[in-house]
Amino acid sequence: MIIKNGNVFTQNFKFEKLDVEIKDDMICSVGSAEGEEVVEAEGMYVIPGLIDQHTHGCVGFDWSDGNPDEMAQMADFYAANGVTTVAGTVTTIPIPRMEEAMKAIKCFSDEQKINGRGARVRGINLESSFFSHAKKGAHLEEYLLKPDAELVRRFRDASGDLLRIVNVAPEIEGGMDFIKELKDEMVVSVAHTSADYETVLEAYEAGAAQVTHFFNAMTSFLHRAPGAPGAVFDSELNAELICDGIHVHPAVIRTVFKIMADRVIMISDSIRACGLSDGQYVLGDLDVTVKDGKATLADGTIAGSSASLMSDLRSAVSFGVPMEQVVKAATYNPAKTLGMADQIGSIAKGYQADIVLLDEKLNVKKVYIAGKEIQ
């Protein structure tokens, strides 16, 4: 199959009018190609499938519930909206339920290798438990724990090594040692933290690789107290960023991309409400109200997002961020986090054929996962 005459997002992170040749599940050439099976992409953007490394759920379901039938419906929704890879995100719930969720996600991922259904689960993100009480956000306080590397390894074993990202507030007791112990085993993300500028820099030096949902559930950036954001700007920490315009103001989104576009990882942080209407939902064991697309707890605390990653991509572009930067932040950059940047997240020879075609208004027209068009 040949995707012909599209504006292809290349490994140079630029759009070029090229052809993409696909054989079986792989991209076999990018350039000029001829063949009998042609998909005409004139006037369309041809981008890698989006990668959402931080998503709790969608269409009424949540990865933490550990239900494979519901996971299949989530995978279908992600795929229909241009997301071809996800890291199912497990939130703060009791330990036995977290462990069961790990096992269930692993089983679902194994099934996908056989049935090829929906967006592929290529990781698990444990956004859970090891947080500051002051910055807990939408995490139930009674479930918060001291950092425990052995517990995380137990979860990793239950997940069949799918657990790729673990979150921690570095300032709490045992936080720094936790980072040092796990930094070579998985991505450690600074999250739900009261840490100041110096402490976040110390966490970076200890081995933390990124921060979770930049600007949210962390100290503020002030001119005499730069806080966690200042440490991100002053280091090589990557930053997850929610670009729905609710979690972070569009002006700040533009500024972040201007300062550190190569280190931005766009995420949805989506919850059950994604793909559905306003109403009452649950995140973990907390009640969430979604009104005008904004998800909050009863006290007004923001509780995840109701927007998809593709919706956020469109929003970021509408805010004035160059599309090339946005696409890279939603494809190549998260592929690096998952340790798969040599397999997915780019349109290049030898990569898996996870490809999305968008029209001029960035509407999804076609989605291919492993070379097969999803219906």
Describe this structure in words.
- The protein has about 375 residues and is of the alpha/beta class.
- Helix content is about 30%, strand content about 25%.
- The chain has 10 helices and 21 strands.
- It has helices spanning about 70-80, 95-115, 150-160, 175-180, 195-205, 225-235, 250-260, 310-320, 325-330, 330-335; strands at about 1-10, 15-25, 25-30, 40, 45-50, 50-55, 55-60, 60, 85-90, 120-125, 165-170, 185-190, 210, 240, 265, 280-285, 285-290, 295, 355-360, 365-370, 370-375.
- Strands 1, 2, 3, 4, 5, 19, 20 and 21 form an 8-stranded mixed beta sheet that branches.
- Strand 19 and strand 20 form a beta hairpin.
- The mean pLDDT is about 95.
- As a percent range, the share of strand residues is 25-35%
Number of strands: 21
Measured as a percent range, the helix fraction is 25-40%
Average pLDDT, rounded to a whole number, is 97
Q: Which shape, going by the Cα principal axes? A: globular
Rg (C-alpha, Å): 20 Å
- The computed structural class is alpha/beta
Stretches where pLDDT is under 50 for at least 5 consecutive residues are: none
Query: Main beta sheet, described?
Result: 8 strands, mixed
Straight-line distance between termini = 17 Å
Task: Count every helix, treating DSSP H or I runs of 4 or more residues as helices.
Answer: 10
